[in-house]
Amino acid sequence: MTNIDSAVTIPPAKYSIAHLKHQPRRHYGRWLAAALIILALALIVKAFAQGQIAWPVVAQFFTAPAILAGLWNTILMTICAMALGLVLGVIFAIMIMSPNPVLKYVAVFYIWFFRGTPLLLQLLLWFNLALIFPTLGIPGLFEMRTVDFMTPFMATLLGLGINQGAYTAEVVRGGILSVDNGQIEAAKVIGMTRLTMLRRIILPQAMRVIIPPVGNEVISMVKLTSVASVIQYAEIIRNAQTVYYANNRVMELLIVSAIWYLAVVTVLSIGQHLLEKHYSKSQGRRTGKRTAPAAAEGA
Amino acid sequence: MSAMVVAVDVNKYFGPFQALQNVSLEINHGEVLCIIGPSGSGKSTLLRCVNQLERIDSGAIWIDDELVGFRQDGNKLYELTDAEISRQRLASGMVFQKFNLFAHMTVLENIIEGPVIVQKRAKSSVIPEAMALLERVGLADKKDAYPSELSGGQQQRIAIARALAMKPKLMLFDEPTSALDPELVSEVLNVMRDLATSGMTMIVVTHELGFAREVAHRVVFMDRGKIVETGTPHDILTSPKEKRTQDFIAAVLS
Q1: Keywords assigned by UniProt (chain B) (predicted)?
Q2: Which residues of B lie closer than 8 Å to A, measured between beta carbons?
Q3: Which of B44, B45, B80, B86 to substitute to test the interface with A, most A CBs within 10 Å?
């Protein structure tokens, strides 16, 4: 006790620094980097300001009916193709994990084919299907001309949706594999059949793992729809092109498209962020509380 | 007493490893049978064969004279479909070492899942039964908790209630207290003791020799995939005849 007191009361003068002021460290590197970037930005802004961009035209076409229609078609296709992709992804993920070898290898082939060929090629194949199959249908029941069925919308939906399904199948498979085997055995012993077990026990728990990457894929899908412009699907870029073929304002309309894509993706990114926060929170709640009640009960 | 479960010459392989070697066993209605033995002796495997979590490679098992996993037609045995296996599993309830409560469901949802989804019974009649079971295991106040919010002992008592909700003829316990902290073991054993008193037929794989001594009607000692010795708790736990049983009991009690 006395030792501690003496250590506090008789420090040599050089150890008493309480009266000195703290000076934050200077970040000269940051200032330099900021200066260089501001200079570069200024040059870019100057270039765009002096470049031959008619900004009033950008503003004028930003809400033009053709652009808004294209935006709507882009959003509509994102939703439809993603929905188809999810349904196919779940079905093929279940098939690839099935004990039935026929189902399994059909799913393996599907994923191999649609991940192994470019999306653009797949879109062209669907759109030109009439060249090899002039009519579609079930013999004797119904029949229709392929060109009537395979509109740009249908070709894009099939192309994007089926392609997406191949990727989603792998995501869903990963989610299913993440579910503890004990959950499956517990479901079996209360008499659940395979499909009931998937629906009631496995998929709800796999969602936690599946949803964040699917959010990512939705954002990719928004931009992938632009590829469909080559088969005349009237999404935002296709419509922008139609306009600039008429008025020659190429860069202005591309800038309009870029702003809309950024706007949609920004909204989706915020949504994805919230979704991930929600899922990581529910996970944290579950793992975080695991030890506390046990300890409380033991006490 | 008549036989409820009859196993005859059951063999089970995992690759080249023989987990069960010509195991034959009978369990009577209302009997409590404890299976003890070192780890890897096949006791859990035997339990898992009874409710078809594992498929036996040869031999046969009957539950109440119904052949498990196969349908006999003349001289041929036909493997059952998944749906038929699921139906047969309803005869027995199982409690796991690691509880395996459904993590995304509350306690009450865990208990009514089987009766409502599998047995297609009305929720309105299942919920009062589920609440009565929760009373019985002393956890009625936890009905809206998630499994991860409960201690191991509480989770295991819920798992027992979930198995009982299916109204099984037979309860299988696979080392139900091995994953528990020592101070939580007794709350689970108490529930099991109550269940035994109520006349439930039970097969219990356990390391709790005290529980076996007190509750079991018969004790089976297994080692290396074989039944070494069967007898009353006193026969096996106090005066075992076989050397391997004596060594095991001595090792556990030391």
Answers
A1: ATP-binding, Nucleotide-binding, Transport
A2: 51, 53, 82-83, 86-87, 89-90, 92-94, 96, 98-104, 113-114, 117-119, 146, 148-154, 162-163, 166, 181, 183-184
A3: B86
By three-state DSSP, how is residue A118 classified?
coil
pLDDT tens-digit series, residues A67-115:
999 999 999 999 999 999 999 999 999 999 998 999 999 999 999 999 9
Cβ-based contacts of B110 with chain A (< 8 Å): none
Q: Scanning the structure block, which residue is given the tokens 């004028």?
A: A60
Q: What pTM value is reported for the model? A: 0.79
Q: Note the pLDDT tens digit of each residue in B1-53.
A: 589 999 999 999 999 999 999 999 999 999 999 999 999 899 999 999 999 99
Euclidean distance between the first and the last CA atom of chain B, given in angstroms as a whole number: 36
**In chain B, domain spans:** 98-167
Determine whether domain B98-167 maps to CATH 3.40.50.1010. Answer: no
- Complex-level ipTM: 0.92
Residue A146 structure tokens: 């392929």
User: String of b and e for B169-179 (b: at least 16 CB within 10 Å)?
Assistant: ebbbbbbbbee
- What's the domain range around A187? 54-278
What is the tally of structural domains in chain A? 1
For A284, name the nearest residue in chain B, comparing CA atoms only.
B148
Amino acid, single-letter form, for residue B108: L
CATH of the domain at A240: 1.10.3720.10
